[in-house]
Amino acid sequence: MSVRHDQSRPVDRRVRVQGQPVDSYPALPPEAERGSMRRVTVVGEEILSRPCRELAEFGTPELSALIDDMFLTMYVADGAGLAANQVGVDLRLFVYDCPDDNGIRHVGHIINPILELPTPGSRRLVDELEGCLSVPGAAMTVARTDHAVARGLDQDGNPLVIEGTGYFARCLQHETDHLFGHTYLDRLSKRDRKDALRQMEDRREDVFAHRATKAARLGQ
Q: Is the N or C terminus of the chain more exposed, i.e. has fewer CB atoms within 10 Å?
């Protein structure tokens, strides 16, 4: 998911890492420091339109390297979240570095997440612009609930419960959608979907150029 233009990742903001509060956290997460840039898949590629496989093996160097690479790729692409199939890997995993509407920055990863949303009678839907790193250059209004809980595992197989409100709840819903083969375009009317694809065609080359420039600054 794309980060909102009015949001950034300052060092001294209140932070929760893997759902736990910490006193401070660097603007560039340590995972990104260790990672290598990967290509971001684009809507229309088959891997984005089918459910990902559940991960069964934990604590491996390969999994750790994948998470590191996803963090760096997300950072270079100016993302707030990134799913594994967005870097061509068919696994139920996403990473995030996303603020909520209360000024708290949430950083982490989650594997095999199950999303819990409020019941229809208690949920509040919020219409807000939403973008996706796999739909480069486009942004459309999407209705999402303002609260979500993701239950899953960390890279060592330990249980995780990640709660999100506001924009972070949107992020959790957006990234979980990816793992089941959906993008936010699937939530749009035919007319709005065509508009989003037109935006992408008009702006994608500028987005790719910006990513290439940012990657070059980082030696990628």
A: C
Give the Cβ contact number of residue 20 at 10 Å.
9
Identify whether 7 is part of a domain: no
Can you give the CATH number for the domain in which 85 is found?
A: 3.90.45.10
Domain-embedded: residue 4? no
Does residue 9 lie in a domain region?
A: no
Find how far residue 28's CA is from the centre of its chain.
16
CA distance 95 to 178: 12
Give the HSE-up count for residue 132: Cα atoms under 13 Å, Cβ half-sphere.
32
- pLDDT tens digits for 144-156? 999 999 999 999 9
Q: Which residues contact 192 (CB under 8 A, 6 or more apart)?
A: 140, 141
Burial track 87-110 (b if 16+ CB lie within 10 A, e otherwise): bebebbbbbbbbbbeeebbbbbbb
Residues spanned by the domain of 60? 15-211
Q: What is the pTM of this model?
A: 0.94
List the alpha helices (DSSP H) in the chain: 30-34, 61-76, 166-179, 190-217
Distance of alpha carbon 25 from alpha carbon 155, whole angstroms? 20
Active-site annotation, residues: 175
